[in-house]
Design brief:
By secondary structure, the chain is an alpha/beta fold. 42% of the residues lie in helices and 24% in strands. It has nine helices and eleven strands. It has helices at 6-18, 21-28, 32-46, 62-86, 100-117, 131-139, 191-202, 216-224, 265-276; strands spanning 51-54, 57-60, 92-98, 121-127, 145-151, 158-170, 181-186, 207-213, 230-233, 241-243, 252-259. The strands form three sheets. Strands 3, 4, 5, 6, 9, 10 and 11 form a seven-stranded mixed sheet that branches. A two-stranded antiparallel sheet has the order 1-2. A two-stranded parallel ribbon has the order 7-8. Helix 2 (21-28) packs across helix 3 (32-46). Mean pLDDT is 89; it is low at 282-288.
Length: 288
């Protein structure tokens, strides 16, 4: 029985998540050839093929699917053990505010890494769809750090990733062809709702509010059910939904990190993890 190196398992998990060697290589800051070599080495140790490589990406074999569960458990335990010894002195409460479109997707693995690396820190997360409300809570001392979405090219916070807002709908329904366009939106105070309504008014496209929710899950469930169309940042688009480019253009947005002036070391560590994460690369002039 061969030992499985942690670094090979980490590479495998990133490839298993992206199913694309080029994208995985970018996230790992490695050359694609290095990623491929590490996968080959892991397959030699497992003595079974883990992936089938094709022109349009990779596909996990049955053994590869089985390994993902075990590998993630092993990596979590490894990180928890290392973190418990290296970061015992990093403690205190970290009060994070964010939108659940981040908390349920891109931010989730980052928070998991933070918890495993700093087991003595006490993370308290608060989700709200109103970015200005979260920034106000931070200014009032009720939050230590806030990851929100702000209009591109405005001031305030550390700008991490630029993205476009897109109109989305279900693949199985055609509500976007209705004479009066049904919208699925967050409650009042949501920037997405505001920009959608303003864009439609300006284009003189009749619309109605068909469904209102306070969570991303509620919005997407309504879209999938064919109740209406919604808008989301393009990088959060899920595979079973489609983009409708025929509707008015929407403003660009930026993932923005706000941090209180007075924070403990645990909060500072989370701040750096978010800033340095491949998910939130420093923005450039093109969409990531």
């Amino acid at each position: 029985m061969h030992d499985l190196p942690i670094n090979l398992l980490r590479t495998f998990m990133v490839v298993a998540d992206t199913l694309n060697l080029t994208e995985a290589a970018k996230l790992l800051h490695k050359a694609p050839s290095t990623v491929s070599m590490q996968l080959n080495r892991l397959e030699d140790l497992i003595e079974n093929p883990l992936m089938e490589r094709g022109q349009h990406g990779v596909r996990l074999t049955a053994v590869g699917v089985q390994l993902t569960t075990h590998a993630q458990q092993l990596l979590n335990l490894h990180d928890q053990i290392v973190g418990s010894f290296q970061n015992m002195d990093i403690n205190g409460v970290v009060r994070l505010g964010t939108h659940d479109q981040y908390a349920t997707r891109t931010l989730a693995p980052i928070l998991q890494d933070f918890i495993l690396s700093y087991p003595e820190a006490q993370l308290e997360a608060f989700c709200d769809y109103r970015p200005n409300h979260l920034v106000d809570l931070l200014d009032k001392g009720k939050l230590d750090i806030a990851l929100v979405e702000m209009v591109a090219d405005t001031e305030g916070g550390i700008r991490l990733r630029r993205d476009e807002l897109v109109w989305i709908g279900s693949k199985d329904h055609f509500v976007h062809t209705q004479a009066i366009l049904p919208l699925v939106v967050f409650d009042e105070g949501c920037k997405h709702r505001h920009y959608a309504c303003e864009a439609l008014k300006k284009a003189e496209i009749p619309y109605r509010i068909a469904f209102t929710s306070q969570s991303r899950a509620g919005v997407l469930a309504a879209v999938r059910a064919g109740i209406g169309i919604a808008i989301v940042p393009y990088h959060t688009l899920e595979e079973d939904l489609v983009v409708h480019r025929e509707f008015p253009e929407l403003p660009d947005m930026e993932v923005t990190l706000f941090t209180s002036n007075k924070i403990n070391e645990a909060t500072r560590r989370l701040e750096q993890i978010i800033i340095n994460s491949p998910v939130f690369n420093p923005m450039n002039n093109e969409f990531n």
